[in-house]
Amino acid sequence: MSDQIERARAFHALHVKGDPVVLFNVWDPGSAQAVVKAGAKALATGSWPVAAAFGFADGEKIPLALALDNFRRITASVELPATMDLEGGYGPAPATVASTVRQAIEAGAVGFNFEDQIVGGGGLYEIATQVERVRAAADAVKASGVPAFINARTDIFLKAKPEEHSEALVEQAIARAAAYEKAGAHGFFAPGLGDPALIEKLCKAVALPVNIIALAHVPPRQKLAELGVARVSHGPVPYRKMVVWLEEQARAAISG
Question: What is the radius of gyration, based on Cα positions, of the chain?
């Protein structure tokens, strides 16, 4: 427990506005060890690559027990802080969220992503509803004794095409960030947002360290640092690129 507590504290300290920690998302012990060798300061799973690696679709389709067992194997194989993608907490009820968080911490997590989209639905939870869910996660963290990092994610920008992103959507995100912070979140994740001016606006208005995902339309890390980003993750991109390479190599070997 003491090692996990220290890892959690170290993970919190990595979130610095203007000097973002890079999380090159992993999906199993082997990929985790490769990223460690590359010089990573911390590790993060992504729900999409973990699910895909086990033959499931994203969206809490992989059984929680299997995802937890996989994460437990990852944390047992490395010494770096590791954060787990918990998607929507595997259920809408705050009590379910709390249970999922407790299990993730027991599996070795020092942090987790927790999103506000209705998994399996078409939209986002109302702010008041999501606040109760974030608060349940925060209470579970406190009760565990491990200061796990709650990365509260909004799916506002994933629900709209990049060309539809606007200051109005950023204002909605800012309101959610403020509410989630009051409920106990430690970071704010805005996947899909890529416009430099909008990212800067979000980072300036939100007290929490902001996490941006490095998608094709997103500025490079150095630019994100200048905009005030504190965390850059890569989501499903590493797994998808690996699979393309694997298929190409297999095709060449089979056809050759």
Answer: 17
Q: Beta-carbon neighbour count of residue 107 at 10 Å?
A: 19
Burial letters 166-184, b for 16+ CB under 10 A, else e: eeebbebbbebbbbbbebb
- Do strands 21-23 and 43-44 pair parallel, antiparallel, or not at all (unpaired)? unpaired
- The CA dihedral of 160, 133, 141, 235, to the nearest 10 degrees, is -20
Please state, in angstroms and rounded to a whole number, the distance separating the CA atoms of residues 148 and 137: 10
Interatomic CA distance for residues 165 and 240, integer angstroms: 25
Tokens 């799916």 correspond to 155
Instruction: Please report which confidence band the pLDDT of residue 67 belongs to, taking 50, 70 and 90 as the band edges.
Output: very high
Domain limits, the chain: 2-255
Q: What is the pLDDT of residues 86-132, one digit of tens each?
A: 999 999 999 999 999 999 999 999 999 999 999 988 899 999 999 99
Taking the C-alpha atoms of 186, 191, 194 and 200 in order, what is their torsion angle to the nearest 10 degrees?
-10
Q: Which H or E run contains 111?
A: strand 111-115
Instruction: Give bridge partners of residue 26 from the DSSP assignment.
Output: 45
CATH fold of 2-255 reads: TIM Barrel (3.20.20)
